[in-house]
Write a structure and sequence with these properties.
5 helices, mainly alpha, single chain, elongated
Length: about 150
């Protein structure tokens, strides 16, 4: 999977950026004073498309763990894509595809230009990574000759 790694490196950069942003969210949430924690949790919930009602200080630990897991996956994916590893492409295609139903739900609930753009971009990324995997599979598949 070493041919033309530039596209994979661009995607790796985007995934690394998403992972680093998730790390920043974790750090900000953990450093918020108690009187602003509810507002911070509501902001994060809004970004994730969650309903902020019912989120309180007890939600901090699960949200922090979720964000840390998300960041870890994104950074691992970025490393694998940057190094043009097959597992990195698989991870990128799979993790991107997992989010598509949620993103499509956001588009259906609020079809603004940002929701549509993000969803369309992610569909293109998943399609591109899937195509690369398919193309590599075709390249290593032995050609069967007709029986003589």
């Amino acid at each position: 999977m070493t041919s033309n790694p530039q596209a994979l490196r661009v995607i790796a950069g985007l995934e690394a950026l998403k992972g680093l942003l998730a790390c920043a969210v974790v750090i900000v949430l953990l450093r918020l004073p108690a009187d602003r924690l509810d507002q911070g949790l509501a902001s994060v919930a809004g970004l994730l498309g969650l309903h902020p009602a019912g989120l309180g200080p007890e939600s901090l630990a699960p949200l922090t763990l979720l964000a840390a897991c998300y960041a870890s996956v994104r950074l691992l994916e970025a490393w694998g894509l940057w190094r043009t590893r097959r597992w990195g492409v698989w991870l990128g295609a799979t993790s991107g595809a997992i989010y598509l139903p949620f993103e499509l739900g956001h588009v259906l609930r609020g079809p603004g230009w940002l929701n549509v753009s993000v969803t369309a971009f992610n569909i293109l990324l998943v399609a591109y990574l899937s195509w690369r995997l398919w193309r590599q599979e075709q390249a290593v598949r032995p050609v069967l000759l007709p029986a003589a």
